Amino acid sequence: MIVIDVVGLPLKTGQQHQQWQAWHGDELLCTARVPFFTAARVLLNRGLAPEQVLVMRHKDNPQTSLTSTIGAAAKLAVVERDDPKGRIEPRIAPYRAYPSD
Predict the structure, then answer these.
(1) What are residue 58's DSSP bridge partners?
(2) DSSP class per residue in 61-74
(3) CA distance linking residue 20 with residue 9, whole number of Å
(4) Cα Dmax for the chain
(5) Is residue 36 part of a domain?
(6) What pLDDT score was predicted for residue 82?
(7) What is the predicted pLDDT for the residue at 101?
(8) Residue 22: inside a domain
(9) pLDDT tens column, 51-97
(10) pTM of the predicted model as reported, rounded to 2 decimal places
């Protein structure tokens, strides 16, 4: 089982979305808006087994926030779209790599 701790970074002026750091022990895996899925892709690209369990918690809190296998989490992303009332709705969707990924 791989346990990652996430830490929220302060918002910068004009920034709309929170950035998070995903740590495995003393190693920073990634900084992202969606650290669980992003960290899963990092670990998968490093050759970890897709069936290995990945657990996310918030730093200094031992309670599990999310759990999945690395392979399943690596296939997912969060997409946001406006709902009919003008609110932003986050949804889990299949991951699509962008040319810069």
Answers:
(1) 6
(2) --SEEEEEEHHHHH
(3) 6
(4) 43
(5) yes
(6) 77
(7) 53
(8) yes
(9) 999 999 999 899 999 999 999 999 999 988 877 887 888 899 999 98
(10) 0.87
How many CB atoms are located within 10 Å of the residue 20 CB?
21
pLDDT bucket at 100, cuts 50 / 70 / 90: low
- Structural domain of 54: 2-10+18-73
Give me 19's structure tokens. 């950035």
Tokens matching residue 75: 């296939």
CA-to-CA distance for 55 and 84, rounded, in angstroms?
A: 34
Strand segments, DSSP code E, in the chain are 2-8, 20-24, 27-32, 53-58, 64-69, 76-82, 88-94
Q: Quote the number of domains for the chain.
A: 1
* In the predicted structure, residue 98 carries a pLDDT above the cut 70: yes
Q: Could you give the residue ranges of the DSSP H alpha helices within 1-101? A: 35-45, 70-74
Any domain includes 84: no
